[in-house]
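Feature request disguised as a bug report, sorry. It would help if multi-protein outputs had a clear separator. Right now it looks like this:
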Amino acid sequence: MKHLVERIDELIRLCPGRISLQGEIGDWSYEHDSERMYSSASLIKVPILIEAFRQYENGVFSLGDFVEIRKDLRVGGSGVIQALEQSSWMIKDLKTLMITVSDNTATNMLIELLGIDSVNDSIELLGLKKTKLQRKMMDFSAVQEGKDNYTCAADMIRCLKVIDESGFLKEESCREAKLILRHQQFHKILGLLDQEQGYMGSKSGSLPGVEHDCAIIGVQGKTAYVAILIDQIPEGKSGTLTMQEIGRAVYDAMTTV
């Protein structure tokens, strides 16, 4: 893994912003400032997904239940619900849209359904140290009041492993969550990879000057977990290439004999 470490070190040096990273392949791990807290952007949707499955398993609701979309929760930014007239949606579909197209309205409906306190209780049960849900998506007034959502690379690795390895969630829920991640439409870490080779699932997030991604890569009997968070990106620059190159370096290390 020496070449992989050297390549990641090089890419960190070339990154246009402040970067935190954690990666694991079997017993091998790499960390760079992995517990630094960042504004989470849409990465917060991963622990929300986990809590949705936890409440489903506890019988709080059925995934086939419908919920009405309140006007005050219908917001802009990422997603498709804002452009559709349909007024009620299955919880199962809200979960899928929250992840695959990062739908902010679907996320707000799930936050309303699950409860912010319950999501944070789940975050605590998961042992996430720097992750906190304090506001709904696109709630800029809350941001002005000092309420934001936070996470770190190490916490996102923990979330990915919870989804990939049954224990906190039942095996059936893990399978469904992995399928949702696999259908992700916005790729950074996985952007240069042939996603038909093995299992690949991810969740990204972005804000002005902020780009994050976390991914599970399963190929040739090996599994990698990668989380990359970047902020302080200058205007006109992007962290996407850094993430893509790190993803490719990890994949090459997994597939090189």
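(second protein starts here, but nothing in the output says so)
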Amino acid sequence: MEKLDALTEKIYREGVDKAQKEASVILDDAKNKADELLKNAQTDAKAIIVSAENRAKEITRNAEAEVKLAGDQALSFIRQKIKDLISVKSLDAGMSPSFSDPVFIKELVIEIIKKWDGFSGTLMLPSSMQGKTDTAFANSIKSAAKDLKIEFERSTGGGFKIIPQDGAYKITFTDADFTEFFKPFLREKTEEILFRR
């Protein structure tokens, strides 16, 4: 029986040793796999963080570029509005009184008609000038064109219209026409004065 006990004890110890060795191998293998998983997870986490940081930088750059572009556009728009306002105010201040002055209108009409050989037609003046013109005004204009009729109308603002007898076309010389004509030239100078760089 002693032999049986010794044999049982020996088998038991061999089994325990073998189980401990296998458990140790399994534990080492599990530890290695856990370390590898942890290392992979850390690498993935770092890659995700780097990607997120790069994306955040890109979004920030794009937002800054959009804000800069919007700011530049707003500044350009404001500059243009300032130029337009100054141009219009300057031109209106200079043009409106001139185109309401009968002497200026008379001289301008005479110069135009002199260049127009044999002109016959109608000179349309604003109704606001009806009280400001006299016979001398009409005679001096008619001396340049004998067949010229002078009429007054409400729709003509400051300035005048020349309509040939056949009515095929109409030429207008109003303060608004001259303002539009001079605007591009004045804007250039206005920009130069206001926004010198």
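Even a blank line would do. Unrelated, but nice: The radius of gyration is 48 Å.
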